[in-house]
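pasting for the record
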Amino acid sequence: MNEVAQAATQTVQVISIYKELAMALAIGLWAIGPGIGIGLIGKWALEAVGRNPEVAGKIQWLAILYIAFAEAVAIYALVIAFITWFVAL
């Protein structure tokens, strides 16, 4: 019986390690996309304002809107990471 308990304990430890790895990968890798996207949105918005300063307000509003959409992807990654952490495999 003692061997069975040790095997069960080792299994739980392995599952815990995989859960931590899955959480780290989910938030780490999925945060790369929104980070790049937000950087590109800012770059293109600044280029557009530089070319046509009269529409700066409209470009700023659209840039903020698209940044919010890109940030939603990172929030989804955070939610999936927490689901992975709190739900057993």
